[in-house]
Each structure stands twice: as C-alpha cells, then as structure tokens.
Design goal:
The chain is of the alpha/beta class. The chain has two domains: 64 residues; 199 residues, Rossmann fold. It is 35% helix and 20% strand. It is built from ten helices and eleven strands. A hairpin with a 2-residue loop joins strand 1 and strand 2. The radius of gyration is 21 Å and the shape is elongated.
Amino acid sequence: MNHEPGAGAARRLWLRWLVEALAAVTDDPAWEARVLLEEALSGDALGLWRAPESPLPDGAAQKLQTILQRRLDNEPLAYCLGHWDFWDLRLRVNSHVLIPRPDTETLVRWALSQLKTTAGPILDLGTGSGAIALAIAKACPDREVWAVDHSREALAVAQENAQILGLPIQFCWSDWTAQLPPGLRFALVLANPPYLAEDDPHLPELCSEPRMALVAGKRGSEAYERILAGLPEHLLPGARLGLEHGAGQGEMLRALLAQHGWQEIFTQRDLAGRERISGGLWRYGHA
C-alpha cells in the first residue's frame, strides 16, 4: 500500500490511497473509498468532486483515519459510519442492531400496499433500528405505529432514530407480544425476526451483527412459532401479517401459517427473485 498522503494532499490522492487500502477488506473498494471520504467531509459529496485538488479540511484526515482503521479491522461499513440508508431514511446504527438491508424493503412495499384497504394500528415486531416502523410511519403519518424489541439497546437505537426523524412511534420493550398492553389489537403486523439456524453457514460472515437478531434456534423457525402463537389476542378481525424469511423458508412458513389459522396465505419474492416475505389474513374475532 502506498504511503498515506501528507498534510495538504489533494482529495483525489486521498481517494486513490483509500481505494488501495480498502481492497484488502472489500470487493468494492472504489465505492467504499468514496463513502469514507464523503463521511470525512461531513457528507459533502459535491465537495469531493468540485474540488478534487483541494486539501481536506481541518480534522477530516484524523476522522478518515479513525473510520478507515475500524473498517480495516473488518467492522462492517455501516457500523464504521454510524448510519445507513434504508427506504428513504438515513438511520443511526450500531452493533446492537442489524444493518438494514434492501431485501427488507420488499416487506415495506407490501405493507404500504395493504394500508390502502386496512384500517387500524400497525405493529413492527423485533424493530431493531426501527427501519420498518419508521418507513411506514413516514409514508403514513396518520397511522398509529407500534415498534417492539426484546433488546433494550436496540430499542434505544430505534427511539433515537424516531426522535431524529420526528416520527411518533409507540415503543414497547417486549419478548415478541408477551409484554404488549392487554387489549391492544392491530390491523397489520410486520416482522423481520431472527430466522437462521444455529449451524447456518452464513453466520461467520455476520459475526459483527447481534446474534440474537440473527439466530432463531436449532431449526431456524423458532421465532416464527412464538410470534404466531402469541399474536391472536392482539389481532383485529381481518388483520394482515407479513413476515420476512430466508430464501429457502417459504414452504415451512406457509405451513406454519396454515397451522395457526391464517388464510389467504401468500409469498412474495424480492427484487432478486427469491422468496422473501410470507403472510396471510386473519379472519377470526378476538382470541
């Protein structure tokens, strides 16, 4: 790797140096180099391109070196930055929450399509950073949205995001539905719960993210089983449910939904064509 640019070096030289440094930890060092340099410039992307020969502002080089070292230690880029984009939101993230992924936007798109014919409160189970709940709340500011998580640290991140974005989410610490207020019932329930099995081969590459948000148990279906068992007493007649799942779990989840009394069971695919969300319609009255 070339020597680090010295004081007063042009931004384009910093960019070139970053690309070479990041090649050791990413398949897309050019993109990550731009992201890191823009972060060091306090998000000023235009400043990078309009003034490529200008030096970095005071303090930017130190900020850049700090972020870069974390990335070279294999910390995920989102955690190094402290934020990540999801839907039309920029969310604060840290190691207590999963990094929001484009796959989950499939669930948001489906949820928004359901709100045209569904009236009543909305529940996001296992909210993490608050990504799903906040995307829904921003798109539908007249709807009551609840967000639940069993991790107090994750809930704090979601609450911070709601405060920054100015979105009125109702937060509740709960082990799925167990601590929700009695009598509280929802018209739409959404969840991206842990769905990996304990021996899933993808876990080593996800080691920086919270294990409790990734691993459901020995089979990978345990979170779905608990959610489906606890939901009926919190559902309005005609409630709809959407659950994100792994690409190979659609058949399993459709069977679970049928066993728990859901009807009009469906599965939707993500933009890559993989089965990504499944759910159904609740036709019964209160449990």
